[in-house]
């Protein structure tokens, strides 16, 4: 593991950083393969968009690229990038002249059962309901207690992901992933206008489907719609794509769309 | 300023602390006057309650008391205490054997215009609407982006506080305070079952009102109810109590309940 804070090797940040005090910041999780960050340009664009939503000054792309260039000792790994509003006085008001803190770190790829990719996963429904906050919806910000509480609902290692509903009962995504379904040849994914994180891999799947002229819907999805689907999958930048083969009492056969999407996602579309 | 991390002087914490990664922790802000922390037992009880809500192991009271004993160089100040779930591997799942991080810090009392106490304040309505999340409501946790965004809505130093509505249009509190109104001899404060922070000072006001056999309502309060009230005040442990004298187009004369509550709050009820 290697951590850089504002470009310098360090494993600590100021206690008074607003990232800690208030979760006042955003982050990204990316995959490095063969010494190269996958989809870097898409990830930086999303980081910059998320910063803009919070009126945070996003550090220049070249600064992160210089950080990543320091990770040369790693052939493969998971890179996490964070931007916080920096050191702050006490109080919620963002400082007029905030200097963001830039954090870049790399760690080994987590060990994941290869069957999750080749066969698929078992998932569960989470009890926690996501709140509706349009001002924060879609952003990968540092206020992630809902994800923590949802992920704490189960310890069974055989369950790879939990699906989350919002307060209205619509399915929004997994605790760490976006969800897609295929039904009657239509690809659908939840509308994230009110909650959830709109990930880069979700955007890549949508772009690919558009390229192939698939029918796509960004819409409200009920639990029933998920259970009635021909194929259900979860995606993120680290795991890629996993088909859900078991969810509550429902089982699915191996689908044909997941491998197709996987082949695309394993490439780099920057 | 003095900062202790797990009892030792330090101004930094691990980048991998879950307090930073996810806002996975809670905090308290207390006032030290004449070398003594006001309402310490109430504050610790609230800290422990908040930890329990997040299944966080709250450090023993005596550990915080030892921290505070190190702040002997300060006669008066603002003490901030934090508990996070500690260092974590990547991923939302709380570690099975989490070791919480304990942070105690003291800084000088902020300079506040004394007229806010003696005369009262001007307040405004915030645009941001608080989301409903019963699992987190009432807790002073580290996911405070809603407060940050709400407080960022104005820069005018003449406006001392902003009042927040929830998604249903009910008034919940200030960006950094709880709100009370007095109308026709009844003291009311918002129900915080769905959002907001249930502060120690709010609890003290409610306890005092009960002691005096006042009529008290913990209820839904509309903007109209606030504007129609005889007296409106905001409270927290650092500011004490401020009467709102101006809010949008509405002005109030000096009230009689605010000074009564202030006299009580300036004492120590532990």
Salient structural properties:
homodimer; 270 residues; alpha+beta; D-amino Acid Aminotransferase, Chain A, domain 1; D-amino Acid Aminotransferase, Chain A, domain 2; 2 domains; 9-stranded mixed sheet; 8 helices
Number of strands of chain A: 16
Tally of domains of chain A: 2
What value does the average pLDDT of chain A take?
Answer: 96
**Quick one: CATH class of the largest domain in chain A?**
Alpha Beta
What does the oligomeric state look like here?
A: homodimer
CATH superfamily of the largest domain in chain A: D-amino Acid Aminotransferase, subunit A, domain 2
- Approximately what portion of the residues of chain A adopt beta-strand conformation? 25-35%
Shape annotation of chain A: globular
- The computed structural class of chain A is alpha+beta
Helical segment tally of chain A?
8
Quote the distance from N terminus to C terminus of chain A. Answer: 26 Å
**Residues in helix, % of chain A:** 10-25%
CATH topology of the largest domain in chain A: D-amino Acid Aminotransferase, Chain A, domain 2
Outline the structure in words.
Two copies of one chain form a homodimer. In chain A, strand 15 (240-247) and strand 16 (250-251) form a beta hairpin. Chain A folds into two domains: 2-107, D-amino Acid Aminotransferase, Chain A, domain 1, CATH 3.30.470; 115-265, D-amino Acid Aminotransferase, Chain A, domain 2. The first copy, chain A, has eight helices and 16 strands. The first copy, chain A, is an alpha+beta fold and 270 residues long. Chain A has helices spanning 18-22, 40-53, 61-69, 115-118, 145-151, 200-211, 223-228, 257-265, and strands spanning 2-5, 8-9, 12-14, 25-33, 36-37, 77-84, 101-107, 121-130, 159-166, 171-174, 178-183, 186-190, 215-219, 231-236, 240-247, 250-251. The first copy, chain A, starts with a strand and ends in a 5-residue tail after the last helix. In chain A, strands 8, 9, 10, 11, 12, 13, 14, 15 and 16 form a nine-stranded mixed sheet that branches. Chain A is globular, with a radius of gyration of 19 Å. Strand 3 (12-14) of chain A pairs antiparallel with strand 3 (12-14) of chain B, so a sheet runs across the interface.
């Amino acid at each position: 593991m290697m951590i850089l804070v504002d470009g310098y090797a360090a494993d600590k940040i100021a206690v008074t950083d607003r990232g800690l005090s208030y979760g006042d910041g955003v982050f990204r999780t990316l995959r490095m393969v063969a010494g190269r960050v996958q989809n870097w340009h898409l990830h930086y664009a999303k980081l910059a968009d998320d910063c803009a939503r919070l009126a945070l000054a996003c550090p220049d792309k070249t600064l992160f690229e210089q950080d990543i260039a320091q990770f040369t000792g790693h052939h493969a790994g998971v890179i996490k990038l964070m931007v916080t509003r920096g050191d702050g006085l006490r109080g919620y008001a963002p400082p007029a002249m905030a200097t963001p803190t830039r954090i870049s770190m790399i760690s080994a790829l987590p060990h994941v059962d290869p069957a999750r990719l080749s066969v698929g996963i078992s998932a569960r429904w989470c009890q926690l309901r996501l709140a509706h906050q349009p001002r924060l919806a879609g952003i990968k910000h540092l206020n992630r207690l809902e994800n923590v509480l949802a992920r704490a609902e189960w310890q069974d290692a055989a369950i790879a992901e939990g699906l989350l509903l919002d307060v209205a009962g619509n399915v929004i995504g997994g605790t760490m992933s976006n969800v897609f379904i295929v039904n009657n040849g239509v690809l659908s994914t939840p509308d994230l206008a009110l909650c959830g994180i709109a990930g880069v891999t979700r955007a890549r799947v949508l772009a690919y489907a558009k390229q192939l002229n698939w029918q796509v819907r960004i819409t409200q999805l009920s639990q029933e719609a998920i259970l009635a689907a021909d194929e259900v999958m979860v995606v993120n930048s680290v795991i890629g794509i996993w088909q859900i083969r078991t969810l509550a009492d429902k089982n699915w056969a191996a689908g044909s769309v997941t491998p197709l999407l996987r082949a695309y996602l394993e490439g780099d579309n920057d």
